[in-house]
Amino acid sequence: MEIDFDALNRPGSSHTSGWRRMPAVAGDGMVATSHPLATRAGLRALEQGGNAVDAALAAAAVLAVAEPTDNGIGGDAFALVWDDAEVVGINGSGRSPAIVDVQAATASGARSVTVPGAVRAWADLAQRFGRLDLGAAVAPAADLAERGVACTPRIADKWAVAERAPWPAPRIAERFRLPELARTLRRIAEEGPEAFYSGETAEAIASATWLTVDDLAAHRSEWVEPVSYDYRGIEVCELPPNGQGVAALLALALYDGLEPGLHSQIEAMKLALADTEAVVHDGPLPGDFFAPERLAARRAFVDPSAALDPPPYEQPHGGTTYLAVVDGAGMAVSLIQSVYESFGSGVVAPGTGVVLQNRAAGFSSDPGHPNALAPGRRPFHTIIPGMLLEGGTLLGPFGVMGGRMQPQGHFQVVTRLVDHADDPQAALDAPRWRVEEGRRVLVEPGLGRHADALRRLGHDVVQPIDRHTFGVGQAILRVGDALVGGSDGRGDGYAAGI
Q1: Cα–Cα distance between 426 and 418 in angstroms, integer?
Q2: Fewer Cβ atoms within 10 Å of its own Cβ: the N or the C terminal residue of the chain?
Q3: Residue 172: Cβ within 10 Å count
Q4: pLDDT of residue 310
């Protein structure tokens, strides 16, 4: 029997029952990821006595193998953790070389690589919060890389069109193996993060890039205090710069004072993206970024009868993966990791299987911009984990992956949860729009009925057939003494609990 896998990319009611997908519900813990094997790895860690951080790390390590287009140990990782009645953030992004003798980084290749921060972030999370050690999370992923992964539809599709894929693209359901990556993961499981940031792995990375072994040895994660905005009684938490999480918060803050509706949402997001592009760098935000008078001044640009032309900004399509975990004790983890664009820089450190990120492409080409390339600097970063609180207590982790779609996805998921009272699965599956440069806005088929009305307001509406444009998300919420979760239908994974 043959299966028509091409039908997966043909939207239309003929391929659905017309009924919606139900959310996952559980009482003692839940994991939501974009890949079935990662969800299972997280659940197994919980069943073996681990907490939410242990489960998140087990899932993250598997994702580094099962979704090599999007993430891996050659990339960065950010996380938010709810524990002991507070949210703690970790910024696991790496820096440019300590010595830079060029004017600009490149979009790919050796001079697009920044120090990979994921492995150090994993180790720091395990040390501070985990019950199990880092090896317990990484060893199963090493076995998986050796044994091989049956390629899922989303990854097969992204791999086939990736410009910098280092290995031949597998077909859907074809097994791929990463034996060199398996050996590197085993060394990390046995020796800890120093097996990555020193010795033969660090030397291999340095030999293929503009980084030095000293750059790798000097890398450290940063524990940070989240930034937040109270959107209609729900506190939305994001990481501070150098990430773009503030774009989601600013869009919510602007929309909070506008006439409700799709046009206002799009315009608020345009302004938020433009403002974020202008100021976010490896340093603090301007003190008045969320000041009421500044918000009011920005809202004044929104015309209910016409679309805005905000300043231009870059629109990278990211290679990222996001996961959410909540355990039975109430600890929650929102974790995201990425190599930036598909297969990152396209550079594989010789003999290691480590695909290196191209995060240096995130530096501004304007030498006077605060985000310009400089020695030892972290670039503007797209990946953003989210966390929701209500009344000062945990509501749940959420996130949407996908380059500049991420803050747009956060904004849309939060408005679906708060304004529409959607459950997590419904909020994730709701049709999305994506703001691009100028008046251009992409809309999914489910928003097609609004296209003409948006065009009359001056929006340049496009309806693409590529679902990857709109991101993939996960979310888990506490409801009473139970957990309700969802996993985006645009991805390959699922949410499940114990």
Answers
A1: 12
A2: N
A3: 17
A4: 75
For position 113, what pLDDT does the model report? 98
Quick one: 327 exposed, middle or buried, by C-beta within 10 A (0-12, 13-18, 19+)? buried
> How does pLDDT run across 347-388, given as a tens digit for each residue?
999 999 999 999 999 999 999 999 999 999 999 999 999 999
Residue 216 resides in a domain: yes
Pairing relationship of beta strands 175-176 and 227-231 according to DSSP bridges: unpaired
**Distance in angstroms (rounded) separating the CA atoms of residues 54 and 323:** 13
How many CB atoms neighbour CB 420 within 10 A?
A: 10
Instruction: Tell me the C-alpha distance between 153 and 27, whole Å.
Output: 30
Q: Token digits for 415? A: 């408005």
* Residue 1 belongs to some domain of the structure: no
Q: Distances from the Cα of 33 to the Cαs of 55, 428, 487, in angstroms?
A: 11, 13, 7
Give residue 349's domain range: 35-224+316-422+468-497
- State pTM to two decimals: 0.95
Domain count, the chain: 1
For residue 332, the one-letter residue type is A
Per-residue pLDDT reduced to its tens digit, 421-431: 999 999 999 99
Which residue pairs from 361-368 have beta carbons closer than 8 angstroms and sit at least 24 positions apart in sequence? 361/105, 361/106, 361/107, 361/108, 361/112, 361/316, 362/316, 363/96, 363/104, 363/105, 365/104, 367/103
Helices (H), 373-478: 405-419, 424-429, 451-456
Sign of CA dihedral 51, 53, 54, 58: positive
User: Do the bridges between strand 440-443 and strand 460-462 make them parallel or antiparallel, or are there none, so unpaired?
Assistant: parallel
Tell me whether residue 150 is in a domain: yes
Angle in degrees, CA 42, 53, 135, rounded to 5:
75
**Coil/strand/helix, residue 244:** coil
Most distant CA pair in the chain, distance: 64
Q: What's 156's domain CATH number?
A: 3.60.20.40
Task: Give the number of C-alpha atoms closer than 13 A to the C-alpha of residue 185, restricted to the C-beta side.
Answer: 28
Provide the strand spans (E) within 4-48.
Answer: 24-26, 29-32
Report, as residue numbers or ranges, the catalytic residues: 320
CB 490 within 8 Å of CB 470: yes
Low-confidence residues in the chain, pLDDT < 50? none
- HSE-CB of 343 using CA atoms within 13 angstroms: 19
**CA-to-CA dists, residue 149 to 155, 362, 472, angstroms:** 11, 31, 20
What beta strand segments (E) does 35-162 contain?
76-83, 86-92, 149-150
**Can you name the residues that pair with 138 across neighbouring β-strands?**
none
Rounded Cα–Cα distance for residues 42 and 38 (Å): 6
